[in-house]
């Protein structure tokens, strides 16, 4: 009876808010989303439908990035090399941050859609007479945007690892040394960090637009949309155990290494800047890591990133 009364009260509360929603709010909201048109947005009437659409989108992305049927066949699963933060280990702050970050995404979607729709550097009516060249141009836009994103993200990420900031912001995300929940583990981070990372997608596209504009061109709309979709999927896949790889561009293993050894692999997507800065470390299997440790102990390996950047380096060196 107690639970029935509680459920009835909850439904009554939801029903009381229906007065703020137009009868055709769902159709209008979907139309606005499809057209990326928020000029005619009536917040009081359609906000509930829009928020639910964004949250539903999160659920879809979560299911996709957790699908062994889709991604599990592409590559072997990554090894579990540290203690995993299980569901029972999650705290109220984890759920609070994830909820806040989902709501931040609502703001991000509106801002991103409005920016792309109104931007003079976006070509909204790109010609598709030559499908091959269109695909190649859009792929080029995605690669350039990924590079622009990490060009800004890497110094920001390294700043978050500064001792004075780390314990206040980024340490929360690194509680999980073995990410496996995909979207949940990806957005389980401090809202300030999440907001910067989300809106950086649009700022990276702006930078691509300036680069294109310097040569008298515009960024194709479908290139912008492709980057936003790829960026969202790749960020979620970074926090799974699927070892997906796009040679020279993207590798889930790189971010997995960063969660275990935070002084390496600061990039979100592309490893280019870590290679240039000397902070890149390739993923090693258990056997490869054991062999490197043996060589380091016997003096046959002059420098071992495996030990120096490990979370447990100081502790293990005292006990060995």
Structural key phrases:
mainly alpha, 2 domains, two-stranded antiparallel sheet, disordered C terminus
Protein model, in words:
The protein starts with a helix and ends with a helix. The relative contact order is 0.11. It is globular, with a radius of gyration of 22 Å. It has helices at 2-16, 25-35, 43-65, 68-72, 92-118, 131-160, 163-166, 183-187, 191-214, 221-237, 252-260, 272-277, 286-297, 305-308, 313-319, and strands at residues 122-123, 219-220, 245-246, 250-251. The chain has 2 domains: 27-277, no CATH class; 286-319, no CATH class. Strands 1-2 form a two-stranded parallel sheet. It has a two-stranded antiparallel ribbon with strand order 3-4. The protein has 320 residues and is mainly alpha-helical. β3 (245-246) and β4 form a beta hairpin. The longest helix has 30 residues, at 131-160.
């Amino acid at each position: 009876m107690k639970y029935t009364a509680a459920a009835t009260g909850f439904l009554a509360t939801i029903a009381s808010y229906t007065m703020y929603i137009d009868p055709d709010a769902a159709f209008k909201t979907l139309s606005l989303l499809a057209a990326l048109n928020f000029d005619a947005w009536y917040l009081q009437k359609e906000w509930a439908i829009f928020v639910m659409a964004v949250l539903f989108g999160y659920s879809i992305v979560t299911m996709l990035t957790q699908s062994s049927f889709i991604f599990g066949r592409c590559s072997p699963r990554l090894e579990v090399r540290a203690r995993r933060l299980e569901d029972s280990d999650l705290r109220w702050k984890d759920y609070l941050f994830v909820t806040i970050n989902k709501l931040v995404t609502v703001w991000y979607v509106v801002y991103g859609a409005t920016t792309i729709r109104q931007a003079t550097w976006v070509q909204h009516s790109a010609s598709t007479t030559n499908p091959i060249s269109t695909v190649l141009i859009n792929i080029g836009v995605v690669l350039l945007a990924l590079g622009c994103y990490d060009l800004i993200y890497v110094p920001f990420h390294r700043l978050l690892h500064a001792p004075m900031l780390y314990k206040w912001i980024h340490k929360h995300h690194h509680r999980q040394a073995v990410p496996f929940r995909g979207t949940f583990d990806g957005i389980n981070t401090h809202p300030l960090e999440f907001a910067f990372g989300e809106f950086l997608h649009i700022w990276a596209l702006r930078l691509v637009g300036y680069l294109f504009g310097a040569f008298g061109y515009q960024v194709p709309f479908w290139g912008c949309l492709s980057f936003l979709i790829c960026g969202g999927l790749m960020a979620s896949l970074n926090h799974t155990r699927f070892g997906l790889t796009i040679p020279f561009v993207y590798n889930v293993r790189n971010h997995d290494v960063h969660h275990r050894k935070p002084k390496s692999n600061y990039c979100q997507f592309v490893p280019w800047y870590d290679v240039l800065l000397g902070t890149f470390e390739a993923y090693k299997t258990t056997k490869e890591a054991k062999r490197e440790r043996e060589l380091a102990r016997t003096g046959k390996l002059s420098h071992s990133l495996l030990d120096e950047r490990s979370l447990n380096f100081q502790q293990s060196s005292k006990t060995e």
